[in-house]
Write a structure and sequence with these properties.
alpha/beta; about 140 residues; globular; Rossmann fold
């Protein structure tokens, strides 16, 4: 079983973009550093509000894998009219041997190429927000 609570001190997104030699112009913003198991409806409302207010039409959100589908549902329910891709890592970036680096790169590509809507990008695939679940036994996201 793959689960557990984590503590985060800082984001590594800028470092990952630099290491990946990304030339994509991006603006990063940290809303919260919180284990997704501890996210509340108020936290999700904050994510929705920031996405709605963002000038960008293509948004990538890094998120803990345990509740990313709940946040995606909240985003979809808000009908923001942008392409929003939620991604994360089963193994955190700083733990080494992480899938986060690959998932972030995939999410950036999907955000640029998919039509408006809410998606989850994991394991090299883009899933419609309402047709995906986390398989806690295999540590993979699967279409449902």
């Amino acid at each position: 079983m793959i689960n557990g609570t984590l503590y985060f001190k800082e984001t590594h997104v800028k470092e990952m973009l630099t290491m990946g030699r990304s030339t994509l112009p991006v603006r990063t913003e940290t809303l919260m550093m919180k284990d997704s198991l501890e996210m509340t409806d108020t936290d999700r409302d904050r994510v929705v509000s920031h996405c709605r207010d963002a000038r960008e039409q293509h948004i990538v959100i890094t998120h803990g894998t345990d509740t990313m589908t709940e946040t995606a549902k909240a985003l979809a329910g808000a009908r923001i009219g942008k392409t929003i891709v939620v991604t994360g890592a089963m193994i955190p970036y700083k733990f080494g041997s992480s899938d986060g680096f690959f998932n972030l790169g995939s999410a950036l590509a999907f955000a640029q190429s998919l039509p408006h809507g809410v998606y989850i990008a994991m394991n090299g695939m883009a899933f419609d927000w309402q047709r995906v679940s986390k398989n806690r036994e295999t540590g993979l996201f699967e279409e449902t």
